[in-house]
Amino acid sequence: AGIGMQGDPNMQSIMNIHFESPALARALKSEGREAMLYFVYNPKVVGVIVAHSIDDGDFVAQIPFFPPLEKAEANTADRCQAILANAIGRDVGATVLGVRPWNMSALVADTFRSGRVFLAGDAAHLFPPAGGFGMNTGIQDAHNLAWRLAYALGGSARPSILDGYSRERRKVAVKNTCLSVANFDETVKVARVFGLDPGLAKGLMGALSPASGIPGLRQPTETLAESILSLGKLQTSPWSPLRPLQRLYLDGLLTQERSLRLLYPEEDIGFCYEDPDIDIGGGDFRGWSKTRRRTKFSPRVKVGSRFPHLQVSWWRRETGPPCVYSTIDLVAEHKRSFLILVPGSSGRAGEVRDTLASLHEEVSFAVTTAFVNFGADSVDPRPGELFVEADWSKLEFDVGIEADKVLAVVVRPDGHVAAILKDPFRLTPYEVRTKLT
Known about the structure:
six-stranded antiparallel beta sheet
């Protein structure tokens, strides 16, 4: 599609060793050391062991290496067995299932659309795997694009509805790349406690690489590189005279939560499509301020954000007594339409209802209106209407929005708020349709 990408295509070269070891899984369980990530620092191996499934004994060892001085093809089955034994500290009967090199990258496409081609997932963005944003962000891409395609291809909306995909998703991808790079830097802090710096090692190996291409110098250069890397790893020895200082600094690093954290509720579900774009300065993802990361997430009703959970009782006459739902369930059940939530407390709910009844006749796409605390006992629902009971006061609205002034909240098929209609607002089908389209 001719779409370029910004960022760093090779932050670090990694060798994945996929292996199976029920014995290791049993040992970790019996010792109460079940975890997802095991960081290994010793004089023979530096790397991370990822437990894909402790129950099944399924693991992947991620070992950094430095091509071209260290070659991927040198990792034979015997060498991989030796790496695993040195990483774990003993032979655990590991069965190597596969070995694959890959490059850790931080890249985002310049645009997520070119004509009829749309990019999503790894085609649109590549992150360091620190924080687990890759799969979540890719699923979010598909979630954002699916309803737009359905509306455009079904004739319910103009093709221009597809233009918002790249604008909205790219800014999220840029933010998540910045966070992933920042998280990688956080993990490097632990390595630096032991005197190991991936950036320094990469620079030294890069400086030596040209010499390996000179006839007669290849073997000496590779031997020198191996010696330098081995010398660096000696600092991780438990007998190092620096060990007391290393332990002191490491304890401070971990107890003050200055290392990698694994829960990111705001980035996973609290992202907002109306947040300002992040200036990455031509691909420098470290340029974004790390102080913007927040550990606490408080859901708010805000244009561009997902509509938050609110418990509702939905009176469905055909099914008898009211069912308890979440507003998230309402969106999911009516995913083929826009959902408009109208609080009965606004004082203009009846006027909103009449306006929306006219709107149903004018728009080509589905609109479902949920009236909250409207007094459904005395009202017969019209097509596209439903009545629910809920404590509307539990919703927290964005700064500057008074809950009692809200006439309606328009929610897109993907659950994100498209508009908040509030007093004073001219309630005409045209004005409401403008907010929807």
